[in-house]
């Protein structure tokens, strides 16, 4: 089954997909249990759930999309705030954005611009952006609620900054990772300022650990 819109309480089973209207992109619930966005044959994004026994995705009425195993245990979720919506739909735009629409408001699940492999000095994450591990099984998300959280299929670490006013997470020239609000006031940091450096890179390992490297040496893990 291929649809352009998955409506509230709809399901995707193995082999089912959501396609963009221009047919350039498709999001497939695969036989191996992974949910993958393709452009043609090129993998653009994956939920990282292959081999976990998932056999269906359900779009719940409260606006979360959840993947379940055959025994009905959840193994992945979009983890948006739970609130009942009159209308709720999953769609893939002609630009390849995977979007959840709740009562006419778009909530971005994935786009090509929001996922990064590494965060280098001078770069930043905005709300909704995330770092992805190379194996696609872990991601570190700067959430819309201002919390910075590492997920496998469940959260394993968080900065505990939920509900604060910061809007960006910056890798500074001094190798300090800092959250700022719109007035450029710092709200949280890793306390890793170590003076000048040639390179400074934040990445997420295939084991789900955040690693900050300065000139090739790990200073935070």
Automatic annotation (TrEMBL):
This is Bulb-type lectin domain-containing protein. It comes from Takifugu flavidus (sansaifugu). Residues 3-113, 116-221 form the Bulb-type lectin domain. InterPro entries: Bulb-type_lectin_dom (IPR001480), Bulb-type_lectin_dom_sf (IPR036426). It comes from the Eukaryota. PROSITE patterns: BULB_LECTIN.
């Amino acid at each position: 089954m291929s649809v352009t819109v998955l409506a509230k309480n709809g399901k995707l089973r193995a082999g089912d997909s959501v396609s963009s209207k221009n047919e350039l992109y498709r999001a497939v619930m695969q036989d191996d249990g992974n949910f993958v966005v393709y452009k043609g044959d090129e993998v653009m994004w994956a939920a990282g759930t292959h081999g976990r026994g998932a056999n269906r995705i359900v779009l719940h009425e409260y606006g979360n999309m959840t993947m379940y195993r055959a025994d009905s245990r959840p193994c992945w979720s979009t983890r948006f705030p739970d609130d009942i919506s009159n209308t709720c739909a999953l769609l893939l735009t002609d630009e390849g954005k995977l979007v959840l629409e709740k009562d006419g408001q778009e909530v971005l699940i994935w786009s090509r611009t929001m996922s990064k492999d590494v965060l280098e000095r001078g770069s930043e994450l905005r709300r909704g952006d995330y770092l992805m591990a190379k194996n696609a099984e872990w991601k570190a998300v700067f959430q819309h609620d201002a919390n910075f959280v590492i997920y496998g299929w469940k959260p394993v670490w968080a900065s505990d900054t939920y509900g604060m006013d910061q809007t960006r997470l910056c890798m500074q020239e001094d190798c300090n990772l800092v959250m700022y609000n719109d007035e450029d006031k710092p709200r949280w940091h890793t306390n890793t300022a170590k003076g000048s450096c040639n390179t400074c890179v934040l990445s997420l390992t295939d084991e789900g650990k955040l690693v900050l490297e300065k000139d090739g040496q790990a200073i935070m893990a």
